Amino acid sequence: MTAIFRLLREEMKILITGAAGSMSYYLADFIKNKVEARPGEHVVYGIGRKPIKKLDNFDQYDALNIYWQPPSRITEYINEIKPDIVFHLAAIANVRQSFNEPRKFVSNNAGGTLNLLDGIVKSKYRPRIVHASTSEVYGNVPASLNPIRECEPFAPVNFYAASKTMQEIIFGTYAKVHDLEFVITRAFGYINSRREDLVATSLARQLVKYERGEIDEVRHGNLDPIRSFCDARDIAEAYWLAATRCDLGIYNIGSSEPCSIAMLALMLRTAAGLDNVPMVKDETLMRPTDIFACWPDVSKFRIATGWKPRRRLSESLKWLMECVRA
Description:
The chain is α/β, with parallel strands linked by helices. The protein contains eleven helices and 13 strands.
């Protein structure tokens, strides 16, 4: 616990990989503006594939592709910025796309993680690392075994999930060999207007196009699966608490309230004020293998941090519509 209290007291240097990605925006915003009693005191660095001059809420951004760069370059960077915490969010994350490009997903996500950790262990520093994994690693767990606990074994049913499983295995091996200090968070479904491939965002974007007269119907994939959906801003807070309050290990994060995708679509139409919009099933939006029941037991994380989602799903869907309309 000593390391945790040190992290809570001191001004810290924080590195976020995949900084140009959707969740990194909310995490950096939380750290810079919403950490209790310490707004703006932490220095946030970001690295990512894209050459971008400036990112909101980041003090410094560098185009450093951890998949392509040799570990020696990552070691140089770690020695230069001296991070206290590393949030590893870098990954290609479109599940449906992963069926068409399995090699790309596995080589990028697993290979990038390998390079990152190799670079860190060869540096002079041992930051606490929070790895953003996913509920997809559990695969298609029977409804009778939901809510899902962290002890459920790996059973990926798509290549994105396979790549995230490999990331976790790489983390576990590095921890044993090199005594790395890390926390793995497995996030379940979330509402995030910056991720166009997520089901809620895809539906919201179509609803706005329908509202503007650009399309005549909203197309969807499988509405039967039961998932859970948490606000991206609440997930960002959970990442921070995982870094500063959790013992080492694996933690589920997300909403513990199950919701079918059919119900999500209905709630989203209500939030948009478009209850009567035509909905049409599109076979091209169906996954070759799907997950039909997936919601978490978050008691382990709640006991460790006191965290629970601040926003109800109905609030998040109204916010999503506002963001997409804007």
